[in-house]
Structure prediction request, 343 residues.
Amino acid sequence: MSRPRPIKAVSVRRRACLALGAAAMVPALVLTAALPAAYAAESTPAAYPDKPVRFIVPVSAGGSTDKIARVIAEKLAIQWGQTVLVENITGAGGTIGAARVARSKPDGYTLLLHSDAVVLNLAMYSKPGYTLDDLSGVIRAIVNPQVLVVKPSLGIKTFQEYVALAKQKPGEVSVALPTSGGIAHIAHEMVRQRLGIQVNYIPYAGGAPAATDVMGGHVDATIITAAAVTEYIKAGRLIPLAVTTSYRSPAMPDVPTIAEVAVPGFDVESWQGILAPAGTPRQIVEKINRDVAAVLAQPDVRKSVESQGYGISGGTPQQFDAALRDDYARYSKVIKSSGITLQ
Prediction:
């Protein structure tokens, strides 16, 4: 891959206020503010960062994780006065990019911006190339509910009616999955196990085609990242039944949670966050945590994120590490008990 030409600081400042959806769809982007004339061979925690920082994003350019990475990178480039490179390293469900970071030098200059898939892949792949012990949580940046939606012609308006229909017609209700073994699949499988329903899962290569086929009437339902279908819900093209988080989505406050209407304590939250190689100095991890939290608190960033249905998370590195291990324990149990495999 050829190295893209750095973008000058004035250009960064102009683009930093753009919404997530306007992020450039390119394989890699270099964001440069005023750079020092030379870089020291080794950095100390007190001096960090004193040379370029690279974010590895293990998904294709243009997706939600990639867009979030670029917004954060633009702001950090200004704040740090350093080049911040966003590089898309895709393949094997994101495991190649995650493994690359896990094997990188633990100095804070190679970071991973990933989603809940970094945990799910550990249970789905026999040789993902990394373990949770190889990575250190920095900050859980963005969170978002999954939402169960159905085609209008199905004739149901509530989650209770959905469950009743699935029980009345076991295996006949078709559910489009944005990906087999993804967070949406796990969430619906948890519902299925708790409520004793049977559905017909249909895996898709992403959320967009899954939602399109539901809107087209070819599939009955899908469970998908709420931010991906907020506009379709507002337009009446999809009927929302419930969200998977313990809280209602600010973007659709009238849609109840699954915990409210059927399964007390139910809580599945998708997220995007930043991780570093294990062994990265604690002072550097905490500085990145503070600086990213400051970026997410900026009014233009918050407005951009929330307008698309996402929520700002934050928290400490220790809290993120604990959440990663809790997610792995919960989700790997569901994957094993239900026999979910990659398709």
Residues 145-268 form a domain with the D-Maltodextrin-Binding Protein; domain 2 fold (CATH 3.40.190.10). The chain has a mean pLDDT of 88. The radius of gyration is 20 Å. The longest strand covers residues 135-150.
